[in-house]
Amino acid sequence: MDLRLPFSAALLIGGVALVFFGLREADSFASDVNEFVTGSPTDRSMWLLAGGAAMAAFGAFLGLTSTSDA
Fold this sequence. Notes:
By secondary structure, this protein is mainly α. The protein is 80% helix and 0% strand. The longest helix is centred in the first third of the chain and has 23 residues, at 4-26.
């Protein structure tokens, strides 16, 4: 049984969740204060967005390139 498809779906869902949390973090009060003082959003929101995008892209890539040997 090929586990690549369920693994890619989990990566894709996890990546989308991280992007969602990153967007919420970027709109938080702490991020607004940090952006006002430093001119850039918090590192946490940037890591969540970048990591979630990379994770979702890798999951989509695995899902699209998985082959079934039926």
